[in-house]
Amino acid sequence: MIGDIKIITGSAHPELARDICKQLGTDLCHSTVVRFSNENMMVQIEQNVREADVFVIQPSCPPVSDGIVELLITIDALKHASAGRITAVLPYFPYARSDKKDRPRISITARLMADLLQTAGADRVLTMDLHSPQVQGFFRIPADQLQAAPILCDYLRQSRDLTNHVLVAGDVGESKEVGNYANRLNLPIAIVDKRRDGDDERARATNLIGDVRGKTALIIDDEVASGGTLIEAARFVLDRGATAVEACIVHPVLSGRAIERIDESPLRQLVVTDTIPLAPHKRIDKIHVQSVAPLFADAIQSIHDGSSVSRLFR
User: Fold this and answer.
1) Which domains does the chain have, with CATH numbers?
2) 194 a catalytic residue
3) Adjacent-strand bridge partners of 165
4) For the whole model, what pTM was predicted?
5) Which of 79, 101, 194, 215 is catalytic?
């Protein structure tokens, strides 16, 4: 028999962990992370977790490598503290874009991350909106992938009149996921055909499939990093006749000059979730954050109870 739920947070996003605990009506399990002068670290679990059902919350965010090592050490500490079951909760999965060998002599790092989690002692994984569906198949342990679409679509319906909106996929690869939003919101789709050269994170929009003339374009994507692709798509649809442009993105990586670019861009609003912590200087007026804590809390309770997680997709 697995014992009570215990929630442990890493250093990456304690605010989300606290919000999840509020939803579950429980307290965080105390742990301590010590970073030594030689850049090694030690994680100590401060409470008894013997036979407990432990969920470790640690999304991937800067410093990414430190966060991964901290998560692995925490899982190993829990394993040797005789935790009954350990679930790694990664709202934003590390190296999710490294999902294929598309050039010689490189690592498929997303698969490596899956192997490391299992080797450290994780019994299962809970994540959200992987960049590519095949990443879920890299795991040899149970892995549940939540979708932010229900939360984001509810907000969009409640916050604006969608009568004259059209959903826009930032590239062809994103069109299937945008179709999920389109079915929920009963809206048409347009697709930006873009080309990316090299590793400089710059993409060129070359064609538009669909019609945005006279409509408000709502760009849908799984993540925004430097913001270059998003802003290029926003300007592209405006040049093709859209009257306004907004965006709805799950993971707000927002690296480099992304905030400055978005603030200066024609985007009217950028809706994101809190899978990644958003620093105070990044909380500009154009950005609205929707919490995923209720959804993760429901999933954690379902995993603990042994009830269906797939019902949360509907």
Assistant:
1) 5-147+293-313 (3.40.50.2020), 149-290 (3.40.50.2020)
2) yes
3) 216
4) 0.93
5) 194
